[in-house]
TrEMBL record:
UniProt keyword terms in alphabetical order: Flavoprotein, Oxidoreductase
Lipid metabolism in keyword set: no
SUPFAM superfamilies linked to this entry: Acyl-CoA dehydrogenase C-terminal domain-like, Acyl-CoA dehydrogenase NM domain-like
Family matches, as CDD domains: ACAD
Protein name: Acyl-CoA/acyl-ACP dehydrogenase
UniProt domain Acyl-CoA dehydrogenase/oxidase N-terminal: residue ranges: 23-94
Source organism per UniProt: Dendronalium phyllosphericum CENA369
Amino acid sequence: MSKSPVLEATTASSPNLLELVESLAADFASRAALHDREGSFPFENFAALHQAQLLSLTIPKEFGGQDADYTTVCQVIEKIASGDASTALVLTMHYLQHAGAARTRSWHPAVYERLCRESVVGIALLNAARVEPELGTPARGGLPTTIAKQTDDGWLVTGHKQYTTGSPILSYFVVWARTNEQEPQVGSFLVPRDLPGVKIDETWDHLGMRATGSHDLILEDVLIPREYALDIRPVQAIAAADPLKLASVSLWLSALYQGVATAARDWLVEYLNERSPTNLGASLATLPRFQTAVGEIEALLYANHRLIYSLATDIDGGKYDNKVGLQAQTVKYLTTSNAIRAIEIGLELIGNPGLSKKNPLERHYRDVLCSRIHTPQNDAICLFLGKSALKI
């Protein structure tokens, strides 16, 4: 059977892939401001991503996916983020869940295969649901208050999760919970969105990433099959995080915010070339002060590109060790700091126009600030680096 033009265009090794992604990004950019202003979810973007077969990028080939390498995933995320950062964040979370599941293969085999095939043939996205009102981010320690109770019919899951990115479109939630045993176990439980007791509380009203639909997830005695317990362990037996899984999170988020900063740079360059004050008689781009500032932005973005893609290339070539997770976190710390600074330079340069809602620079700035929130956060990264250097 011959491949469709779309499938050929989106095969991970195809040279046409990035051209297609660039076209999608341009289309997403045309609606990004509206979705940001309304806080509405860009469902149409995910229909386009499905049509382009880009929802299966990190799914194994044996289940119909593309099993793309790290470099390709970074490129796709970066380009989509240059069009609409919110769409890129939801997509990144979906990629991360599939990539992590493919590496560990800790899920029930039939369940895992079905989810993969659903994500290939339809719009079946998944993401983790971990943060809770009482606990906060689990990266800082502690046990979830979400409870999974084993019954004769399966697991009953009850709890309250926050910041569930992509909640309006997700087909499945990978819920972090503990069992109600005297000696509780902890792990993830797969919760389909269409089960009784699943509710989305539309609480998301954020400074940035406003179109991600990162609402609260409410679970009230949701009954799931036994095999939907994905990886349950005693608290003292929780496995150390896989270094390559850690690397995926930090590296792909770095690529996302590089895309946001690049979009801001592109708008700024166009603005400076078009803006010609009457007292100057030429465009702002002709002034050395503006040229120097744009040069600084270019240096920051170039450094980001080298950091992201050199590490991605190393991973793809198998040239990494068990420090790769911390190395990727270091890349995240440096590149997101650079991305924020790059946009701030543009804002400082042009003043009020940069903060006007009719221009996208203020949206890019609000979005890029969200890079500081994603785990691991900067203080944790620096703590890990310091302990590593001090051999503590």
